[in-house]
Specification:
The chain is an alpha/beta fold. It contains 11 helices and 14 strands. It has a 6-stranded parallel beta sheet with strand order 4-3-5-6-7-13, sandwiched between helices. This is Substrate-binding domain-containing protein.
Length: about 350
Amino acid sequence: MEPVDGRRAVDGGRPTLEAVAAAAGVSKATVSKVLNGRPGVGERTRARVREAVRDLDYAPSTGPRDPDPAPAVHVVFDSMVSLYALQVLDGLLSAGRDLDAEVVTSALASAEAAGPAPLGVDLIERLAARRRSGLVVVTSRLAPGEVAACRRLGLGLVVVDPINPLDEDVVSVGATNWAGGVQATEHLLALGHRRIAHAGGPAGSVPARERLHGFREALESAGAAPGPVLAAPEDPPAFTVEAGRRMAARFLDAADPPTAVFAASDTVAVGVLQEARVRGLSVPDDLSVVGFDDTHGAMWTDPPLTSVRQPLHDMGRVAMRTVLQLARGQSPDSHHVQLATRLVVRGSTAPPPGGPPSR
């Protein structure tokens, strides 16, 4: 048998993995990562390995295989029971088709579960063992140990709408939540409303806090008195219709109830609409309501919901593109991407009863 000279070594007439590694100037482990599409290898190194594979006409002993298999990305949702999740998933799948990537999904909770389970280091280790190219986590909590496990195992990580504060090095994709809160509140102020309440999301949610800060900023800039603010309880730990109803009941039971409510999500807004209907209030004649997300269902509420549109489909596409960049060993275009929101005005908002005309 010829000696390993960096260009060709044979085993029964076939080039070996050692020969590919020597020709590319890397370890056998690195060659194996490239052949199996695993993360943790820079793009230039991948190119050298692929060139060596072609030059040596190398084929694994188990038979010919594609030296650059399609990457597989695992996507984890807190749950799949919301239109929000489906629209983000649609963007992820669309980008996966365009980029020839396999998309595998799972959820941490079902419709019947009381709340999502933690992601867990065990799941991350299983994904790495299955040679997933990257992990996208959507609106789920991440513990420091889980982030560290992704780094240790070379698993690219992108978080969409992170619920809890994360290390600055964690790549995230979201929307301009603060600006959206300002847009919603300024719309209600322009209609003449001054008693504006905010039905928030879970107290620990970063997007919910950003929307609340935008709400307060708009009121302060207009010289309006701060409106009542309620946060959804941590249990259930989500933006829910039930939480919207409970918060609306407390607002509407007040001695001086609001004439408008800015809800931190469309699902919370639906709860506000339901509670108003039960009390015989007309929306928007007696109460104006603004949601956040502008999911597909917003136009089918009664009346159609005015809402701040998050570009959910685009958020999914950006997350997929970014996690594949990380899998190739490339730096992301930005560690913290925030896509622009815009207000979509429909039938759930109008000037307050007996109030001044809108500006």
